[in-house]
Amino acid sequence: MGKSKIRLGVDIGGTFTDVVLEVDRALYSTKVLTTYIAPENAIIDGMKQVCEKAGIHPSDIEQAIHGTTLATNALIERRGAKTALITTQGFRDVIEMRTESRFEQYDLNLKLPEPLLPRQMRYTLEERVDAKGNILIPLARADVEALADVIAKAEYESIAIGLIHSYLNDAHEKMVRDVLEEKLPNVMISISCEVSPQMREYERFNTVVANAYIKPLMKSYLGRLEERLRNEGVTCKIFLMHSGGGIISLESAADFPVRLVESGPAGGAVFAANIAARYGLDKVLSFDMGGTTAKICLIKNQTPKTSRVFEVARTYRFKKGSGMPISIPVIDMVEIGAGGGSLAHVDTMKQIRVGPESAGSEPGPACYNRGGEKPAVTDADLVLGKLDADNFAGGTIKLNKDNAATALDDAIGNSLEMDAQTAAFGLAEVVDENMSNAARVHAVENGEDLSEYTMIAFGGAAPLHAGRLCEKLGVNRLLVPPGAGVGSAIGFLRAPFSFEANRSVYMKLSDFDDKLIQSLLKDLKTEATGFVRSCDADAEILSDYKVYMRYTGQGWEIPISLTQEQATQPNAQTFQKLFEDDYTNLFGRPVHGMDIEITVWAVNATTQPEEVERIKEATNSEPSPISGTRDIFDPALGERVEASIIQRDEMQTGATATGPCAITEDETTIIIPSSRKAIRQPDGCIDMFVKS
Amino acid sequence: MAKQHSNVSYQVMWNRLISVVEEQAQALVRTAFSTSVREAGDLSAGVYNIQGQMLAQAVTGTPGHVNAMADAVGHFIRRIGRDNIFEGDVYITNDPWEGTGHLHDITVVTPSFNQGTLVGFFACTAHVVDIGGRGFGADAGSVYEEGIYIPIMKFVDRGNVDMTLINIVRGNVREPDQLIGDMYALATCNEIGHRRLIDMMTEFELEDLNGIGGFIFESSRLATIERIAALPRKTATGELTVDGFDKPITLKVKLTINEDHIVSDFAGSSGLDKKGINCPKVYAKAYACYALKCAIAPEIPNNAASLAPFIMEAPENTIVNALHPAPVALRHIVGHFVPDTVYNALDKILPNVVPAEGAGCLCNFQVSLRPRTDAPAPNDAVRSEVLTFNSGGAGARPEHDGLNATAFPSGVMTMPIEATEHAGPVIIWRKELRPDSGGAGKQRGGLGQYMEVGATEGHEFEFQAMFDRVNHPAKGRQGGKDGGSTTIAQDDGSPMNGKGKQFVPHGRRVVLAFPGGAGYGDPAQRDHEHVKRDLARGYITVETAMKDYGLAKSDIDGVLDAVQKGEAV
Fold first, then answer.
1. CB A551 to CB B563 under 8 A?
2. Does the pLDDT of residue A317 top 70, yes or no?
3. What is the ipTM of this complex?
């Protein structure tokens, strides 16, 4: 991949479409407003802008990589195709019954999210496979043909097929698909054993339904996009970022569009991982804070942590369980409703609450002067002095401090008997604490201690809050890279071609079957490699082998990486040792005398990641020129302090800044608390750490 | 520097404590062995001050534990003795009366020391799959038959694990590795909570938890009392009759709203049952309190002060205040009906707030599989215990339909059937919604569900039933109709009982229909668009649409036609 010299990265977000062009290592970027009705318009517009900046023609582009929230939004807004589910008799309601629990226990008026498909669009067939993959009830072809007639009459555009235990035996799902393809050639079909071959019927069925639901929409969008780019003269191949942090071909993306969900945030994590590699950091916490949400991801050994299931479209204050589970390989991150636009109020407990409601871009925070009356995080940042009213977004938006103060008084100060500054302090502390807590819980769920981590912060609002988060989390070092505002799109350019294939097959170590393991991993490797090969005909392809293991009787698996040799010549003792070592690291001690089982097998095929040059870290040269001072409230001290103002573009490599300080640039402001100082690194990163 | 803390810092610390106990709970889920804990979330975790008053509790968990565990730490302090509490100690019990209601719940308490000084306690509770005795079921005649009893004692004394305790427990239960593993998981989760607490105290320069405790208690007390004070100062009674084991049980409550507290008095409720469905007061109180909090003060976090104004009384040796040695293994059945009883009274004081009656208790069963005995069993036939949690329908709300197949008041989850079938040679042939089981009403009750359970070739099994509402379906409110009743039988029609251990021969299946929630308001007033939607989805049949809701023939034909064409209804 490193050989491409001119590459385009495009990230369609909720508000902005970010476009980045890399020409011989130089980056040109722009942000244009997302054009919801025809998202390709914004891309073309942005592409023209960056091509002009770089002085090239679209036909010069050698590779285009795209990530988008369109798939996510289609699921959230329920704008998918007319879709039917075909499932095993007796299990028509799996996607509706969910976990049979309430995600908020004290709300008597709780409403559960509706399934993507209402009950009348879910059909059943008499058939059954057992937990060992044996067929208990064979499927009759005549039944499928009869069902095909029913489906034809209802004129569905897309069909999801999800049968019980199909991840163990896919014969019935494939038979249904073959008959339908024969009888209904114009209908798109998705089968669960291909989309998400994992145990747990609710997650698998929901994932195949989601894939089928957005497939016609995404296929059509990707087709239009390709055509528009071709019309503009773009001749190179077009690739898509997937939720697992790699790149797949446009064709694969159109077949498995559910893998595009959360591709934007995945790009952000890849961006952070690339910076981690530059600095040789093995433990990194990426913190991406935009207008409505904040995303936090753990990056170990320069690789974002991945997971096999996540939740999309949370309906209830981002609460766990209120969305729908999607089981695909995904970069594991927590997302909470905390961004610059998040609104605050005082609850019945006289506690300040922030988010997840957001002011959005219209009317925006009160200080935008566009009619917003409720205080947002940005209003608090302004009142606390963290933002300069005259130099926000490069001076394009003049912020009104009086409006911010009034909103803070009305919503918080008056009922809690606080002045506007204390209200702003409270608001900012609450949102910072919310984000810190999310990071802490995420770390503990992964058995990690954050005090050993370095934070990498990007997204418009992150540099204002990252310093305080580090104080709260006991994180010593923070890097704020340049281009933080378009981090995800830059991340797309750093991602390898990759595809993860996985399958649920249960095996206890006491029943270790090395022949079966060899053939299983070989099949998975062939499948994963095939996808990557379709992107690049000759690159070297690496395979990472992973097995998910646990003590028999536990519910949570630990992912264990295998070497090529351990995968091709599997051996029970080695597997046991690998597992017990990791388990001990996480939870203190192994549990002796218990059988161990493997539940999921995964092979990730990937091209060699771009070679990252280790940076030669700068040593202190001299303090940066100070362009002025202003009073900024320091929450750790609980008082205002006089902070120096530094222009980021005036900071030379090695130049230092000592907190309290505000480093300003067009896109954002970096706040250095009194407890820290910073140095500019050769790659433009602002490197902040605790004063010694 | 002796630090002066502002209101803002205290707010942050309070949030932090809630986050600390959430981490504590997550650590338990990650390391537990019992499916009831790790899949179904039958657990709780909390932090306490040195007086044993609960400061914060994890949102993860189920209400029966939530409030019951709030009282437990006081018992631990009293039994262990203040002078006998040392750094490195861990305490344990499964006492139904000083823990959370039955022997299957293990509660572990750990004192938290900061620089040599006791600053608080962490406690957690989890439901384990087996504790010995007769196994998890209603069949015992006294608590002695229900399993091994661990009095409040030291599990770890200044860092040293009591191996005698471990050995005794190991020798008395069916799944010793799992249980011992869970005991360690409970201790680990308290340890994680403790570490985070010390981090927080260091960051905020706290020497003790008095200041933050005072802030939490005062804010919570004032907010709760404010809610109670806004209610009408009235008294009302409510009652509920359910199946019981072999004779019906009636729960009665007199609810009195006072200026700053609410008393629910269960005098007049049925006496003890001979079988293990009796409920210790601590567990019944937990659900009485839970019901009232949901209706009156849902968003106030659980802690000693926010729970204190909810007082529950019941005469000794009634079914909601069973004393030792009454059998209590399935105390959840009665406990889960306490909220509906309380709501039957509260509805008279606070109309249009509480739901109609629902399925109430979880529809759980345990299957004990073994090689067939009526003919030679195949060589690979095994013995296995499989426990499942399932839910009927919830009651309709004043403004919303009841939730379909969703636990209320319990907070646990079901297990995926694909996971259940990996746990043993069981086959779940059916698990889907049960049309027409939601009681008709202006708002319809939640649907129950059908299940069908068998064994794989070569196995027979004992079926341990834990169902209610066979003879006493959920009752409608304000003119709403009753929900569907529980039915249970074998697939050849042989009848089975709602409770108790019953043999199912090779090749037979158990066919179950779990109850629906009751309706709210007159069905005639139901929006016809909702009736049509329900018909299109098959939540109700054509007969019900006509009979209960008076939907016209032409409307029905229109709906059925639209469904065939795949059109939205």
1. no
2. no
3. 0.93
